Write the structure tokens for this entry.
Amino acid sequence: MFGAVATFLFGMSTMTDGLEKLSSGRLESILERLTSNVFKGVLLGALVTGLIQSSAATTVMCVGFVNAGIMKLRQTVGIIMGANIGTTVTAQLLSLGDISSDNLLLSLLKPQVLGPILATIGIIFYMFITGGRKKCVGQIVLGLGLLFIGMKTLESTVAPLQELPQFREMFVAFSNPFLGVLVGALVTALIQSSSASMGILQAMSSTGVVTFHIAIPLIMGQNIGTCITALLSGIGASKNAKRTACLHLLFNVIGTIFFLLLLYIGNAIFHFPFWYDVLNRSSIANLHLGFNVCCTVLLLPFNRQLVTLVEHIIPGDADQREASVLDERFLSSPSLALEKCHDAVVQMGHFAQENYRLAVELLDHYDPKKLERLNETETALDKLENTLDNYLVRLSDHSLSAEDSAKVSELLHTLSDFERIGDYSVNLSEAATIVHDRGMTFSPAAKAELNAMTSAVDETIDKAIDCYTQRSRELALGVEPIEEVVDLMRDELRSRHIERLKNGKCTVELGTQYLELLINLERISDHCSNIALYIVRETAAKDSLIRTDSHAYMHALHHGEDAEFDDMFQFYRNKYYAPIEQPLD
């Protein structure tokens, strides 16, 4: 029996993991963006949970979104209600075992027949077919097959128990509603899956001892037990995130109390004829679905009151601390975690760009307040880089698809590039500080040259951030031509400034700072080029040159083998280099 339960739970876990990987964060993004009203939230909660088959996972996402400041507490009410409806899909699938037709097609839908077929197909897809999405499909089909196999094995192992008086007495004890709710909640809390505990109850129905009055408190208890996952995820979270987890529990407890009172008082008065009816798998699945739909219909009009109540249960103002986009709860859904990491890397890019522009302003007009702001932003940038790096390392410990593993690698490289841009911007500010503190001034020619080069680098940074944010190949292809112009300017301006030093038109001390500026500007441009190349490579065809040999690709660009690149290079050369091509002194 324990082996059957293990197979069943492993099948459930395998199927859920495959569904989450296949969604690639899209379902979570829908939750994040499309919760403008509570009715839409119910539909979305049911849809997402129906696809990933875990109401706990959906609720944990909500806790994470609220903790990250992405969603408000009120937006989660409908999603949580819908999640309870969506989680009933597995029970409906398992009810296929009640099919008793001799029709060949219908017979194939029976778990004892369908399970081995699905498991075989799934293992073939998972083991022998390449491609991330196909592998996920194989994992889903394999999990569903194991689910059916475990279910049927569990039924066959518990069937002899119906002859034991002790087994029947145990189930009779569950007719006590308080004990039934408690047992249902404890079992579900232990395995952290109401779908799995529901499947076990459906398997027990084959013994013929599961009646309506026994099943109803167990089902209600299972709904309460599944809240444990969200409650655990709320530990250490913001106040509103804790309220979100509590809201899930509150909704299920209120629904359980209301319907238990309604049913037991109603039976005492009207003596329901179905009270002692023996239930099969389909009846249990329909009872589960009906209970969750009725709870939602009952409590949906009181969604605002539910929020008010949970705010009284967990009193105080919402935390004002800065929201953490990289919430640890997202780690259980790698695709969503990667999406949030991408957002954080984009934020790093904006920090780096802000510092670059502050450093350039310091060169034109030194201001201690701007320097202080630059140093504060650099601290924030370094902190974010360290947080992101650790987060991605932890994410790598999870089971990732090949596509997600590649994204982790790209994110690590990109965050390093943005961090280096920030560091080189600090170097620019240090050079500006030295020039200011020592009372030195660049010649008009040197100022004009620096203005041209800093403008070119500024556009390079701008394009690098935009192409990375939008994952745009078109924007990314525009970065390398500017970078090539920056390289040209660095070489020419360095030679030109050395001549000024030889002719005594500039001091050695000031000349050193000028050359230091050129070096740092060119290195910033190099890192922008790296970022753009990640996007070009990612969006290119699998057999393209940049994917097969990136060095050959770069060689082709810089040796006149790409007409589009040459045209853009000439455009930016005329824009930035041509105005200073002739020495101004």
